[in-house]
Design a protein that fits this description.
Elements: E1 2-8, H1 20-31, E2 42-46, H2 60-72, E3 76-81, H3 87-96, H4 101-104, E4 108-110, E5 119-125, E6 129-134, H5 135-139, E7 142-148, H6 160-168, H7 183-186, E8 194-195, H8 205-209, E9 215-218, E10 221-224, H9 234-238, E11 244-245, H10 250-265, E12 273-279, E13 301-305, H11 308-319, H12 329-332, H13 340-345, H14 351-358, E14 366-370
Parallel strand pairs: 1-14, 2-3, 2-7, 3-4, 7-12
Antiparallel strand pairs: 1-13, 5-6, 8-11, 9-10, 12-13
């Protein structure tokens, strides 16, 4: 049975060891990193660098603690993520969010290059066929996946599986474009954006949020460059009138996350990947959006495991016991059910965990060890 180590966010003693950074150190030492990483071995610390306006990412202090403990065992870590917006802009976002060489003590590297198309095609299963794994993640021998737990408008829940799947895959491929990248998960068929001019309020929010600036309005008519578009879906998310839509299949998308995660993890040898889930500042949106709503669930703590399925199941089990926070989107919708993330999005998010188990990535049976 997989072991999942946990430390609560509650502080009951006015001591450093009872603080969240202190508890993270204890968790990392409890799991014994020497069992996973070797001296001089390069280790990718995979996280989400956030967006301009999205500040509820994993705080730099926690990333620094992970880096420091990896250095103590002689490993050579670096922080990484794949391109979410234009590469240079994303590095600036990371710096503005406090994630840089000075704060973390290690370089911050874009895993798929400045242009987001530096990747290797890897077999990924019956839904996706094969998909573009970021070259740095493909090549690096070991990884620590640091995931900020949150809601997600399409996945319903964003944790370690989504972090590995969406964050380990490039936005596009040099030759086959978005169809080999994250867009393959986001859409079905051609993934064509559909604009309804009668509904459109010409608020231009879709144009403003497009990470590639590919959306244009000329003479009040919508257009976009289909070849450049990553199919990230941000434009459809922010449209207040429903004038902009993109074909999608919630169940297929959630299952494809598990497939993509398997493709990414297939590039590592056994016992070379650890997972840390931060159940803090649990907001309803992905950290890709240009803002961050108030948390809908109280901070729970930190989980660590070497089993991606077990840690996700433990995380969800913990969230199912929580109540909506006041003055949040959860309270605004007068949610009574304790499955707050499902109530907010109506997405079958648990399928990603079930599918990951079916694909052999781990077990939903776990032993929770509180530190």
């Amino acid at each position: 049975m997989a072991k999942v180590f946990f430390s609560s966010a509650r502080i009951k003693k006015w001591k450093y060891t009872d603080s969240m950074p202190g508890k993270l150190e204890l968790l990392l030492k409890q799991i014994n990193l020497n069992n996973y990483f070797e001296k001089d071995e390069w280790v990718a610390v995979k996280t989400h660098l956030g967006s301009e306006g999205a500040h509820r990412i994993i705080r730099p202090i926690f990333l620094r603690k992970v880096v420091n403990v990896l250095k103590e065992v002689g490993a050579k870590p670096f922080i990484t993520d794949t391109v979410r917006i234009k590469g240079l802009d994303y590095l600036e976002v990371a710096n503005n969010n406090g994630i840089n060489h000075l704060s973390a003590g290690v370089p911050v590297v874009l895993a798929d290059g400045l242009y987001g198309n530096d990747n290797i095609m890897v077999p990924s299963g019956e839904i996706l066929g094969e998909i573009a794994v970021a070259s740095v993640i493909y090549d690096v021998p070991a990884m620590v996946v640091c995931s900020h737990i949150k809601g997600h408008i399409q996945a319903g829940y964003g944790g370690a599986i989504k972090n590995v799947a969406m964050g380990g895959i490039s936005s596009s491929h040099r030759h086959c474009g978005w169809k080999c990248g994250r867009g393959a998960m986001h859409t079905i068929g051609e993934g064509t954006l559909i604009w309804d001019g009668e509904k459109c309020e010409l608020c231009l929010q879709c144009q403003e949020i497009c990470p590639l600036e590919t959306i244009k309005f000329e003479n009040e008519l919508f257009s976009y460059n289909s070849d450049d578009c990553w199919r990230c879906g941000r434009c459809t998310r922010v449209c207040p009138s429903g004038a902009l839509t993109i074909p999608g299949d919630d169940e297929r998308f959630v299952r494809s996350l598990a497939e993509a995660a398997k493709a990414v993890l297939s590039t590592f040898k056994p016992n070379k990947v650890l997972y840390i889930n931060f159940l803090t500042e649990i907001q309803p949106e992905c950290d890709c959006m240009p803002c961050a709503d108030v948390p809908v669930i109280q901070d729970q703590g930190i989980l660590i495991s070497d089993d991606i399925v077990a840690i996700e199941q433990a995380t969800v089990d913990m969230l199912l016991k929580t109540r909506p926070l006041p003055q949040s989107a959860a309270e605004e919708l007068q949610l009574e059910a304790y499955d707050i993330l499902f109530s907010l999005t109506k997405k079958p998010y648990k399928l990603q965990i079930e599918e990951a188990e079916r694909l052999g990535l781990g077990s939903r049976q776990y032993e929770l060890i509180e530190i």
